[in-house]
Amino acid sequence: MLSGFNHLTLAVTDLDRSVGFYRELLQLRLEAKWDSGAYLSLPGLWLCLSLDPARKTEPAADYTHYAFSIDAGNFPLLMARLNAAQVTPWRDNRSEGDSCYFLDPDGHKLEVHVGDLASRLKACRQAPYAGMEFFTDP
């Protein structure tokens, strides 16, 4: 049986640029780095960056993305840093809680989000999506 999320690996085209983005801008902890990769972490997340020159295409048009949690008090600070770094947005926030959707240097779709599953379900119970059903009690 699965016991949780293990790790996330992202293909990158410039390892040093990507390590800098995740380490300095998003403040993940750099655990290890080698010629073709790096390991970074947040509590509960192991992120692997893997050098892959085949990644040099435009990001996909679908909604697949990777979301990081942030508390409400730190959200404006991170927004200021992201704006100063001129990151590329890829979507406007359309859901409960503050969110920012942006691309990393290789076009991976990222999100920082204030809130969690419980707050999302609470908001959805008040204004359900079309055809939404709930299978747990609030």
UniProtKB/TrEMBL annotation:
<keyword id="KW-0479">Metal-binding</keyword>
<dbReference type="InterPro" id="IPR029068">
    <property type="entry name" value="Glyas_Bleomycin-R_OHBP_Dase"/>
</dbReference>
<protein>
    <submittedName>
        <fullName>Fosfomycin resistance glutathione transferase</fullName>
        <ecNumber>2.5.1.18</ecNumber>
    </submittedName>
</protein>
<dbReference type="GO" id="GO:0046872">
    <property type="term" value="F:metal ion binding"/>
</dbReference>
<feature type="domain" description="VOC">
    <location>
        <begin position="4"/>
        <end position="115"/>
    </location>
</feature>
<dbReference type="GO" id="GO:0004364">
    <property type="term" value="F:glutathione transferase activity"/>
</dbReference>
<dbReference type="InterPro" id="IPR037523">
    <property type="entry name" value="VOC_core"/>
</dbReference>
<dbReference type="Pfam" id="PF00903">
    <property type="entry name" value="Glyoxalase"/>
</dbReference>
<dbReference type="InterPro" id="IPR051332">
    <property type="entry name" value="Fosfomycin_Res_Enzymes"/>
</dbReference>
<dbReference type="InterPro" id="IPR004360">
    <property type="entry name" value="Glyas_Fos-R_dOase_dom"/>
</dbReference>
<keyword id="KW-0808">Transferase</keyword>
